[in-house]
Amino acid sequence: MAKDSLKNFVKITLQSYFPYTVELKLKNGEVYGSVSFELPTPEVRYTKENGVIAIDTDASPIHLAIAEVSKTGELLSYQTISLHHFLELSQNSKDHQEWILAHQIVDLAVEKGKAIAIENLKKLKKGVRGDGKATLRKRLHQWNAKKFLQKLKRVAMLKGVEVVEVNPAYTSVIGMLKHAPQSSIDKDIAGAYVIGRRALGFKEDMHENYEKLLKDKAYLEFALKRYEEREKELRELIEKESNEYKRNSVKSELENVENAKELLTNLLQSLQSEPSSCEGADGRNPERGRGSKASSSAWRVLKVALLFPILGRVLPRDLSPLKPVLVEGVWDRVRSRLVPLEAGGTVPIRDF
Predict the structure, then answer these.
(1) Long-range CB contacts (< 8 A, 24+ apart) of 129-133?
(2) Ordered domains of the chain (ranges, CATH)
(3) Which of 69, 260, 266, 351 has the greatest number of C-beta atoms within 10 Å?
(4) Nearest residue to 118 via CA among 74, 162, 88, 182
(5) Residue-level pLDDT at 297
(6) How far apart are CA 132 and CA 137, in angstroms?
(7) Spatial contact of 170 and 299, defined as CB atoms under 8 Å apart
(8) Reading across the β-sheet that carries 63-69, which strands appear in turn?
(9) Could you give the CA distance from residue 137 to residue 61 in angstroms, rounded to a whole number?
(10) Which residues pair with residue 338 across a beta bridge?
(11) Which among 154, 115, 125 is positioned nearest to 59, based on CA atoms?
(12) Inter-residue contact 282 to 298 (CB < 8 Å)
């Protein structure tokens, strides 16, 4: 009777029969059933030829950052979707909500007539017990971006929406340093914007003033001094801290500071012998001839040279103080121990 009922349901719903498999299992005195069948894959109707809806799943605190990007690379609109209500749900409820969210995003792409751009998340951030990063570990446990994106790709396929996966390398860094201050958007939306532009084939030129900054020995020496001061502070904290997990967290920051010092030291040494050795990111013009490795290195060094020395934080939420540096090239204020807060104003660096 069960199979006959299923056949009638299929005929009424899809107006046709198709092959399927029914599997019944007895577990702990209860019968579980599953039905498997194949659905035809519809033709892709919504492609990146009209632009993309780009998604950054690594946004923090937990949310999705979504950017609509035109086929010519402009940011048309953006929004964020909070995922905090997922955190206390059971796994079954969470799966259900993720399917609903996947349909909402795909429906948005259909409405806009665009493809969807996502990161290729083969390499996810990992938190290790004892590393002092309990917040990161908890977030990764509560929100599995890879599983959600698998749902999203499946829904998109069924609705004829193209999904473009891109290399996630440096999308966040480029977003926060270039597009966030320039377009007055937060770093997560800026990261989604870079994902969208990358999906459309655009490469990110480094702004002329940023390239000049990376060749300014006086500024780089100032930035290196800031890290040396922070290194001394962290070593003193490690000596005083008795809590193992807090010590590990400080040690983790100390390792980042040491890496930053090494990058800046190497850059300064290269400038002594080869003033033109540090180039910006590979642009859209192939005649510039810069490889992707050099491009990634330049953005990495720029992040180290800018964020902590100017803003006093490695991952600040507000990137607007970088706009005068990006647009006007006013890092001379930083060299004189003043940080550009906004065009026409300054704030002493000791206040950070």
Answers:
(1) 130/244, 130/245, 130/248, 131/248, 131/249, 131/252, 132/245, 132/246, 132/247, 132/248, 132/249, 132/250, 132/251, 132/252, 133/249, 133/252
(2) 2-37 (no CATH), 48-199 (3.30.420.140), 208-351 (no CATH)
(3) 69
(4) 162
(5) 83
(6) 10
(7) yes
(8) 75-82, 63-69, 52-59, 115-119, 163-166
(9) 13
(10) 348
(11) 125
(12) no
Both tokens of 216, joined, read: 């300014």
Six token digits for residue 332 = 């001379």
Structure tokens at 304: 């180290």
Check: CB of residue 268 under 8 Å from CB of residue 217. Answer: yes
Say which amino acid occupies 116: I
pLDDT band (50, 70, 90) for residue 291: very low
Cα–Cα distance measured from residue 311 to residue 95, given in angstroms and rounded to the nearest whole number: 39
For 94-145, the pLDDT digits (tens) are 899 999 999 999 999 999 999 999 998 675 455 444 444 555 555 555 678 8
Q: Can you read off the two tokens belonging to residue 214?
A: 């990376």
Answer yes or no: is pLDDT of 284 > 50.
no
Six-digit token pair at 47?
């492609």
- For 88, 97, 128, 196, 216, the CA distances from 151, given in Å and listed in that order, are 20, 11, 27, 19, 48
